[in-house]
Amino acid sequence: IGEIQRFLRDDGMVKVSRSIRELSFKIRHATDEFIRVHERQPTLTELAKTLEVTMDELVLASDALRDPASLHEQLFE
Amino acid sequence: MDNEMTLSFIAISENEGLARMVMTSFIASLDPTIDELAEFKTIVSEAVTNAIIHGYEEDGEGIITIRAKRNGQSITMTITDEGRGIPNVEQAMEPLYTSKPERERSGMGFTIMESFSDHLSVWSEPQKGTAITFTKEFLPVQSNFVLGER
Amino acid sequence: MDNEMTLSFIAISENEGLARMVMTSFIASLDPTIDELAEFKTIVSEAVTNAIIHGYEEDGEGIITIRAKRNGQSITMTITDEGRGIPNVEQAMEPLYTSKPERERSGMGFTIMESFSDHLSVWSEPQKGTAITFTKEFLPVQSNFVLGER
Ligand SMILES: Nc1ncnc2c1ncn2[C@@H]1O[C@H](COP(=O)(O)OP(=O)(O)O)[C@@H](O)[C@H]1O
Ligand SMILES: Nc1ncnc2c1ncn2[C@@H]1O[C@H](COP(=O)(O)OP(=O)(O)O)[C@@H](O)[C@H]1O
Ligand SMILES: [Mg+2]
Ligand SMILES: [Mg+2]
């Protein structure tokens, strides 16, 4: 399977939507970890560095992280 | 003025995502935190959704225009439609007020936009359209963060 | 016409990234592969860079406009500047031709744009400006396997 994935990746046939899904999962994880260590929110640049991705990739993937968790709490609770 | 852009698109719900991405990209150089970004995108989503659903009543034809300017750490953005307009702006902005209760709208759009922005003003005229202008400040993070250290 | 948008921005190099992101987002619904997207973004970058460097000679003031339409699996996009224009389009499009050899330009911009698009046409008039129109088809991948199987 790893072989096939590598082949696909090298071949450029992988759908962008798929790599975005993977990255958005990593963003969520890295954000939690950053907050735990630094006791504040990371900025986009800090996340891009941590995850070793470009700002473009980060901006694209960060849209999968909609709806701030705090939204409901702030307004409805 | 540090930077400025204009985006126009058809008022269909697929373009709410486009508007969000474009605005994210426009403010990326201010290096927002994840929360600031989420708030900013929520403002964009609420305003664009209102233009699609209320302004054009989902006719799939109207045009929405977003003009944005960056001035230092501050972003000012106007979202305009040329749709039905709002007869009573004060009432429309009240928490929980919605003219479409049958659509299960929450009536909280304006309240959310106000709470996530630093300044909001509404221009509207029935049968002419609506323009909502926001300002949001992005405070620089006191970044004592160096990769691999603390 | 499935969808359509217009973006205008100041001709500064920071906005080359904005243009790339906006166009990426506009074609997202076509679910491109990484390669298709990379080609498409390269076209956008080359055309926008030309408008900034050649059209406006980096005056930091000119406006670049991108109009894009989606028709099924096909994207047509026009990138316009109102800058100096191109006196001899045929010569400009020759591989390796550049009017700015001192800037270490490769002269390969048009060649790259042509090879990555399915159709390209150039309108230009000296002192009026330049408009470059591309079409690119995004073929649905004949995906006859599911990852993890063959
Ligand atoms: N762009 C617009 N054009 C016309 N009417 C609007 C527009 N935006 C808001 N409104 C009016 O203001 C009301 C309140 O908006 P909002 O607070 O977002 O609640 P909701 O969208 O849930 O109804 C809407 O129900 C509608 O009547
Ligand atoms: N938007 C434009 N406005 C004016 N001249 C242009 C424009 N785009 C291209 N040109 C001309 O065409 C030439 C070839 O462009 P290109 O193939 O991209 O090579 P390069 O940018 O490396 O010079 C440029 O050197 C310039 O003279
Ligand atoms: Mg609303
Ligand atoms: Mg070039």
TrEMBL record, chains B, C:
<keyword id="KW-0749">Sporulation</keyword>
<dbReference type="InterPro" id="IPR003594">
    <property type="entry name" value="HATPase_dom"/>
</dbReference>
<keyword id="KW-0808">Transferase</keyword>
<protein>
    <recommendedName>
        <fullName>Anti-sigma F factor</fullName>
        <ecNumber>2.7.11.1</ecNumber>
    </recommendedName>
</protein>
<dbReference type="Pfam" id="PF13581">
    <property type="entry name" value="HATPase_c_2"/>
</dbReference>
<feature type="domain" description="Histidine kinase/HSP90-like ATPase">
    <location>
        <begin position="35"/>
        <end position="140"/>
    </location>
</feature>
<dbReference type="InterPro" id="IPR036890">
    <property type="entry name" value="HATPase_C_sf"/>
</dbReference>
<keyword id="KW-0547">Nucleotide-binding</keyword>
<comment type="function">
    <text>Binds to sigma F and blocks its ability to form an RNA polymerase holoenzyme (E-sigma F). Phosphorylates SpoIIAA on a serine residue. This phosphorylation may enable SpoIIAA to act as an anti-anti-sigma factor that counteracts SpoIIAB and thus releases sigma F from inhibition.</text>
</comment>
<dbReference type="GO" id="GO:0004674">
    <property type="term" value="F:protein serine/threonine kinase activity"/>
</dbReference>
<comment type="similarity">
    <text>Belongs to the anti-sigma-factor family.</text>
</comment>
<keyword id="KW-0723">Serine/threonine-protein kinase</keyword>
<keyword id="KW-0418">Kinase</keyword>
<dbReference type="InterPro" id="IPR050267">
    <property type="entry name" value="Anti-sigma-factor_SerPK"/>
</dbReference>
<dbReference type="InterPro" id="IPR010194">
    <property type="entry name" value="Anti-sigma_F"/>
</dbReference>
<keyword id="KW-0067">ATP-binding</keyword>
